[in-house]
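This week, study the protein below.
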Amino acid sequence: MTEALDRRGLAYGASAYVVWGLFPILMAALKPAGAFEIVAWRALSSLLVCIAILAAMGAWRRLRAVASHRPTVLRLSAASVLIAINWGVMVYAVVTDRVASTSLGYYINPLITVGLSVLFLGERLRKLQMVAISLGAVAVVVIAVEMGGLPWISLALAFSFAGYSFIKKGVGGRVDALSGLAIETAVLAPVALGVLWVVGSQGDATFLARGADGLGWWHDVMMVGTGTWTAGALLVFAAGARRLPLNITGMLQYITPTMTFALAVWYFGEPMPAGRWAGFGLVWIALTLITVDARRARPLSRRRAAGLSRAAGEQPVTEPI
């Protein structure tokens, strides 16, 4: 039974990251739409998908319970701002042919997350973590020199998603994935409508527009379908995360930037000078060190937890699957 759950969780988790890894292809297919229009439709259509799923599941009571807790709503509102920034920068990078920058951003995200834990949670850096973060910083400098400026797309993606994850971690188990996304997109909905009004008033709207390459009914379907991709991938990921240990979920997260890196090089044909390869190489070494450190630290934390449990006369703590 446990093995079946493990395999199912692995399939769910890997599938979610594969879907996220394919997002650049979907976003590129939405040209000539601009980043603002795409993100606005993504937020609105995600909200509609969430409402449809909540109605089908009869989960309104759960949503009301979350929405009635003011501190949680405030945290989710802050998270919605960060995820909107993340979506916007990512889409902008894709439509301006800078997919490799998105890959770098999600590669260095775990390093930023470790840094936030030190700054705000008072955690102490272990030796391998310090080396990994130092290598990550050097990698950013190397790539900045090669590009002739800071890789702001990569940094914006890394910091916005790390901040989003940090806030969501603070919410904890009080909010399920569906209710959280519903509230976040509901907060974004008025802004998204305003963005679409501005885009339309300037004559730049592509939804329901005709007369240019790439426009048509299939373009409209894909634009609305961004919400299905977003909500669907999140729910599949949540199903996998419940069945997998955190160390497995942590390793799976590298599927997405690896896919986007491969797409940037071999699908979109973006240039990869030697300096950029060197920067990515340093990041990959840093991520290897972070992964090794996490695997070493996990048994130690479990032994400490077990020791505390036995001292309290309880059974050893085991990791839920």
